Amino acid sequence: MDKVIVITGASRGIGAATARLAAQAGYRICINYLNDDEAAQRVLAEVRELGAEAIAVKADVSVEDEIIQLFQRVDAELGAVTALVNNAGTIGQKSRVEEVSEFRLLKLMKTNVVGPMLCAKHALLRMSTRHGGQGGGIVNVSSVAARLGSPNEYVDYAASKGALDTFTLGLAKEVAGEGVRVNAVRPGYIFTDFHALSGDPERVSKLEPGIPMGRGGQAVEVAEAIIWLLSDKASYATGSFLDLGGGR
Question: Which residues form the signal peptide (predicted)?
Fold first, then answer.
């Protein structure tokens, strides 16, 4: 079976690292991104240099019409998707709950919860044996924040990842008999530019002393777990969560 992977939010960080490992694993790759054309083209060039057939598709994966167009391009240019990595996400500035606006909440939940659910929907229409597919795998990128709650920082973000965890578990059971495995990774403090969105780009370095392993993680360490969960080596894993938090 040809391996075709869609990675959302793949122009940077964990998504970009996953794309590079997917190229080495023989996938045809769709690099989805929202804004940064230059970064997406850079990742695209890297995976093509590694020998992968790949495309970069600009799409807001919290909007179903754009998701539909994304998967139609994948169908036409790479073939039917067999793997989906729901990596795209957002976070707000460090805030207490009483300081959070309705606009922030709606944007965050649409990106971090609704988006992955809609992407999974359109992947399943192609993967599931119920719809004539040959099976596949979905990995959702959650966070250790889902079980820690992130008080005094971003409870809303933690709650969105808690919702993603529940979705992972429910969907895994729903499609387990249809050839599709659904799992999640829960990264902790990882060195990516994601933390700049919360207003503190040096956050990981500052918090390293409080991590049991004494260091922040690297994006490639998360990517390795994602590619493993999608591989045949994890063939009996579904509804599973891999915590990648250095002991947190």
Answer: none
pTM of the full predicted structure? Answer: 0.94
Catalytic residues: 157
Nearest to 218 by CA among 10, 13, 5: 13
Give residues with Cβ within 8 angstroms of 40, minimum separation 6. Answer: 10, 11, 31, 33, 56, 58
Q: Which domains does the chain have, with CATH numbers?
A: 4-244 (3.40.50.720)
Backbone angles phi, psi at 18, to 5 degrees: -65, -40
Taking residues 178-202, report their average pLDDT.
82
The angle, 0 to 180 degrees and rounded to 10, between the axes of the packed helices 219-230 and 13-24 is 50
Q: Work out the angle at residue 170's Cα, subtended by the Cα atoms of residues 165 and 175, and round it to the nearest 5 degrees.
A: 125
Element (H, E) at 107: helix 102-109
CA neighbor of 141 nearest in space, from 164, 173, 109? 164
Question: Do residues 108 and 173 make contact, with C-beta atoms less than 8 angstroms apart?
Answer: no
Vertex 194, ends 214 and 213: CA angle to 5°?
10
